[in-house]
Amino acid sequence: MRTIDGSDGGGQLLRTALTLSVLTEAPVRIESIRGSRPDPGLRPQHLAAVELAADYCDATVEGDVIDSETVTFRPGEAREPTLDASIPTAGSVTLLLDTVLPFALDSEEPITVAVTGGTDVKWSPPAASLQRVKLPLLARFGLDAEVELERTGFYPAGGGKVTLRCRSSSLSPIELDDRGAFEDVWIHSKASEDLADRDVADRQAEQARQRLHAAGITMREPTVEYVETRSTGSVILLRAEYERSLAGFDELGEPGRTAEAVADRAVDAFRAFHYTDAAVDEHVADQLLVFLALVGGRVRIPGVTDHVETTLALLDRFDCDVRIDDRDDTSASIVASPL
């Protein structure tokens, strides 16, 4: 059994360890879960990941309770293609789905996962990023998956709902060392219905459009929507399309921050990325590492973050050959041989 020290990692380390345990059929014991956090141990969104992975492979689990700082996970041989999970807070459903998405490479039949919780919340990619950036990018290498957003859930009430559908997939090596020529940017701006009278989603989109136009950036027609939600909120996503890659830059609205300031932060993030030679954005870079470890390849990322370092160390514990190569001040290449 592999023993993992979770003290220096957050929920992503736990989710990745669960995914690798299922795919390699290797039992794992994760200790000091989120040990460096002010509230260590399993929170509802982390427990949901443990339960979802266990349901998929009929695992034997110990420590699967709220606040537990140690989880022992022994994957079984069965495979359950129809799954559901509910996070009783605004915990991120997109991060939860990260746990099961690689199972498309493991299952012989389609997988359907219905999840409720927070769809557009802090410290996680919004649902539109999963729909419009990550899944289309992975589709270029053979992943057959789609996600349907049925209801938006902002913090604190959550209550959003998404359904992920994956078909059995065989990925080719992920070669994203060169993004190719820039093509355009697509702006998607969304807000809760109670912000419609202040034109919040429209103002976010217009500010981003004006900033990009002034910089001479080619754009597609922005999309704007107002949706029924349990909590007030807004989000903007900029999807940058290149000849051989996609990148996403998002920002959430917050009390006291204008719609224009929200858009400015997303535009600033895109422009900072655009002037590097990275092929994927910072968040997708972290999320691609499991797929890269499984099928091999080479990806140019915008610098090596703490999340990347932590994930690389975890992959090494599962005997994955993934390493940093050709690193400079603004980007680095991650190279992997297939597991």
Automatic annotation (TrEMBL):
Residues at which ATP binds: 98, 283-287
Location in the cell: Cytoplasm
Cell cycle in keyword set: no
SUPFAM superfamilies: EPT/RTPC-like, RNA 3'-terminal phosphate cyclase, RPTC, insert domain
Main location: cytoplasm
Membrane-crossing residue ranges in chain numbering: none
GO biological process: RNA processing
InterPro entries in the record: RNA3'-term_phos_cycl_insert, RNA3'_phos_cyclase_dom, RNA3'_phos_cyclase_dom_sf, RNA3'_term_phos_cyc, RNA3'_term_phos_cyc_type_1, RNA3'P_cycl/enolpyr_Trfase_a/b, RPTC_insert
Similarity field: Belongs to the RNA 3'-terminal cyclase family. Type 1 subfamily.
Protein role: Catalyzes the conversion of 3'-phosphate to a 2',3'-cyclic phosphodiester at the end of RNA. The mechanism of action of the enzyme occurs in 3 steps: (A) adenylation of the enzyme by ATP; (B) transfer of adenylate to an RNA-N3'P to produce RNA-N3'PP5'A; (C) and attack of the adjacent 2'-hydroxyl on the 3'-phosphorus in the diester linkage to produce the cyclic end product. The biological role of this enzyme is unknown but it is likely to function in some aspects of cellular RNA processing.
Name this protein carries in UniProt: RNA 3'-terminal phosphate cyclase
Lineage: Archaea, Methanobacteriati, Methanobacteriota, Stenosarchaea group, Halobacteria
